[in-house]
Amino acid sequence: PLALGLYTVNAVYGDTITMPCRLEVPDGLMFGKWKYEMPNGSPVFIAFRSSTKKNVQYDDVPDYKDRLSLSENYTLSIKNARISDEKRFVCMLVTEDDVSEEPTIVKVFKQPSQPEILHQADFLETEKLQMLGECIARESYPEGNVTWYKNGRVLQPMEEAVVINLQKIVDKSTGLFTMTSSLQYMPTKEDANAKFSCIVTYYGPSGQKTIQSEPVIFDVHYPTEKVTIQVLPQSTTIKEGDNITLKCSGNGNPPPQEFLFYIPGETEGIRSSDTYVMTDVRRNATGEYKCSLTDKSMMDSTTITVHYLDLQLTPSGEVTKQIGEALPVSCTISSSRNATVFWIKDNIRMQTSPSFSSLQYQDAGNYICETTLQEVEGLKKRQTLKLIVEGKPQIKMTKKTNTNKMSKTVICHVEGFPKPAVQWTVTGSGSIINKAKETKYVNGKFSSKIVISPEENVTLTCIAENELERTVTSLNVSAISIPEYDEPEDRNDDNSEKVNDQAKLIVGIVVGLLLAALVAGVVYWLYVKKSKTASKHVDKDLGNIEENKKLEENNHKSET
């Protein structure tokens, strides 16, 4: 490299400076020397080497003591380069009749330390110019320059918004520079989370370079511009019994710590932290809720609907009725939105609501009216009705001769609730072949059966008794040797329905025949009437003769 036409050696601070003597060694060389020039131009010799004796001598110069080395080709090396080594050095080769000189310029470079942002502000306030911090880069040579950046973009000075002041201080003992750049800044709300950094630009042996500081984020304070109210938890529906938390927040930094909450029915705001808790809410909590800053400058509102569900079953609990009685049942629903209602009887879902115009034993059971509110999770109600249908014992007895012709079966069909107890008695000779056997008690009905071989006519008595009444019915049974009409064992509901259907069919046929006979009679009467009218003149004379005959007969009877 050449500086002003002179050969230049660039050295790094602390490294070894190597300066070759750029002269050709002449014939008859006696010795070589190195010197440097003072600012006033006076020379200072620092090294000597004889070409004949090969010995090297270094002058007593304090700045270069134990730092110099002169090689056989007259290359001068200086250890531990310093800023003060930036001089004009000259290589001299001397013969008997000539002295040759070649100057070399030494340049020393020192990379600064990584810049740091010190004396940082604790926080920044909008609309206020304040000291953000100082960017410091130490021990640079030559001096560098400092540039501030925000989010990777250069911060340019701007009056009353961006003020930058750069100071460069040199250490007299080392000659190194320390650069300090202070930044005064007026932030905006958008500067929250902005990254501030600084970059130092310096020169090295190979040219211009840069080093960047670590980015710094400042807490930017700004006033609240908007208040927001929220309902927690953020579920879509609220039902009676829930706990509700109202949360009020402001978009300032730092956020407000206290607010005024306005509850429906309250004229004054309730001062609280940023939350207001309501437990076990009822339907009367439905309404508009508001919150504001404590100075009432800003406000927000929200509407809360507390869903409810009421169910009234009439009657409910345990109800006892008599068979054949009517029992009106109603399940009334009151709710905040459409509700679904269904009935369950003895753990089986019913297709329709129960209605009892004439209670039967099969109507007894455990009824549940249950309702749920659509789209409101967990909101359902139910009430129960335990229906007991009571009835006095009713008895019907039947008999049948068994296929072996040796015995007869007598059955006592019993209805009633509570279940009647059955006893049998026999009047006359004969023995009960087996003990009474009972069928399963279903829907208030069961039967008791005995088998008997009567030697003569007997009377069997069936006694059924429960808490309501004692009922007695007797049946005459002929001796086993005497044939008699056997009654069927049992007529279940299906058979009864078939008999009813047959009776209805017979009645229908009879009515149809009567109607047909009536129509035929009317037709015949009309026909006869028409025939009499057509022969009226013929019958007139005949009528007179007949009348005369009747008069004579009457007179004869009177005389007699």
Automatic annotation (TrEMBL):
<dbReference type="GO" id="GO:0007155">
    <property type="term" value="P:cell adhesion"/>
</dbReference>
<feature type="domain" description="Ig-like">
    <location>
        <begin position="393"/>
        <end position="473"/>
    </location>
</feature>
<dbReference type="GO" id="GO:0030424">
    <property type="term" value="C:axon"/>
</dbReference>
<dbReference type="InterPro" id="IPR007110">
    <property type="entry name" value="Ig-like_dom"/>
</dbReference>
<dbReference type="InterPro" id="IPR013783">
    <property type="entry name" value="Ig-like_fold"/>
</dbReference>
<keyword id="KW-0677">Repeat</keyword>
<feature type="domain" description="Ig-like">
    <location>
        <begin position="324"/>
        <end position="386"/>
    </location>
</feature>
<keyword id="KW-0130">Cell adhesion</keyword>
<keyword id="KW-1003">Cell membrane</keyword>
<dbReference type="GO" id="GO:0030425">
    <property type="term" value="C:dendrite"/>
</dbReference>
<dbReference type="Pfam" id="PF13927">
    <property type="entry name" value="Ig_3"/>
</dbReference>
<keyword id="KW-1133">Transmembrane helix</keyword>
<dbReference type="InterPro" id="IPR013162">
    <property type="entry name" value="CD80_C2-set"/>
</dbReference>
<keyword id="KW-1015">Disulfide bond</keyword>
<protein>
    <submittedName>
        <fullName>CD166 antigen</fullName>
    </submittedName>
</protein>
<dbReference type="Pfam" id="PF08205">
    <property type="entry name" value="C2-set_2"/>
</dbReference>
<dbReference type="GO" id="GO:0002250">
    <property type="term" value="P:adaptive immune response"/>
</dbReference>
<dbReference type="GO" id="GO:0005886">
    <property type="term" value="C:plasma membrane"/>
</dbReference>
<keyword id="KW-0966">Cell projection</keyword>
<keyword id="KW-0325">Glycoprotein</keyword>
<dbReference type="InterPro" id="IPR013106">
    <property type="entry name" value="Ig_V-set"/>
</dbReference>
<feature type="domain" description="Ig-like">
    <location>
        <begin position="103"/>
        <end position="212"/>
    </location>
</feature>
<dbReference type="InterPro" id="IPR036179">
    <property type="entry name" value="Ig-like_dom_sf"/>
</dbReference>
<feature type="transmembrane region" description="Helical">
    <location>
        <begin position="505"/>
        <end position="527"/>
    </location>
</feature>
<keyword id="KW-0393">Immunoglobulin domain</keyword>
<keyword id="KW-0812">Transmembrane</keyword>
<dbReference type="InterPro" id="IPR003599">
    <property type="entry name" value="Ig_sub"/>
</dbReference>
<keyword id="KW-1064">Adaptive immunity</keyword>
<keyword id="KW-0472">Membrane</keyword>
<keyword id="KW-0391">Immunity</keyword>
<dbReference type="InterPro" id="IPR051116">
    <property type="entry name" value="Surface_Rcpt/Adhesion_Mol"/>
</dbReference>
<feature type="domain" description="Ig-like">
    <location>
        <begin position="223"/>
        <end position="305"/>
    </location>
</feature>
